[in-house]
Amino acid sequence: MHRHMKIASVAACIAVSAAIAWPVAAQYAKPEDAVKYRKAAFTVMNNHMGRIFRQLKSPTPNMQVIQSSAQTIESMSKLPWDAFSPDTELVTDTRALPALFKNEAKAKELAQKMQEEVAKLNTVAKTGDAAAVRTQFNAAVKTCDNCHDDFRAK
Fold it and tell me: Which helix (H) or strand (E) holds 35?
């Protein structure tokens, strides 16, 4: 009876692991689809960072635009990472450098830091304090630049 419990337990663990891994692997029909997905997420984020930047340059920033964009950026910041699967390394229509796939731990660390900073940006934007938003916006931009410096072709 003990042996059957071990076998059943191992089988259950394998099934759960496969169920977790399968959706990520199966979510893109081909590597090019994953690249398109992550590019789209970054495009939306970049667009909204630009909207915030333009508002912060204005003598009277529209806090509603800033708040809406900050919320969008925070939401989008969670999306592109699963689309950096190893099978996308050979896709040529991307600016991701091979170094990204060779240093996954650092890439994940930089992605997490960016997500933390854009979450702070969203929180600060809700206060309506343009000076505080400007400071946090610059911190968020720096985290984007850190990843681009190491893992994105110019």
Answer: helix 31-57
The residues, any chain, with a CB within 8 Å of residue 146's CB and separated by 6 or more, are 110, 113, 114
- Taking residue 144's Cβ as centre, other Cβ atoms within 10 Å add up to 20
Token reading at 19: 């169920």
Give tens-digit pLDDT for 14-48: 444 444 433 444 589 999 999 999 999 999 999 99
Domains in the chain: boundaries: 29-151
Here the tokens at position 31 are: 């590597």
Q: What is the average pLDDT across 99-108? A: 93
User: Mean pLDDT across the chain, nearest whole number?
Assistant: 87
Cα gap 21→2, rounded to integer Å:
29
Stated pTM of the model: 0.81
Count CB-CB contacts under 10 A for residue 74.
21
Distance CA 22, CA 31 (A): 15
Token pair 């939401």 in the structure block, residue: 75
Chain position carrying tokens 């692991």: 17
Pick from 103, 111, 61: nearest CA to 86: 103
Fold for domain 29-151?
A: Four Helix Bundle (Hemerythrin (Met), subunit A) (1.20.120)
User: What share of the chain has pLDDT > 90, as a percent?
Assistant: 79
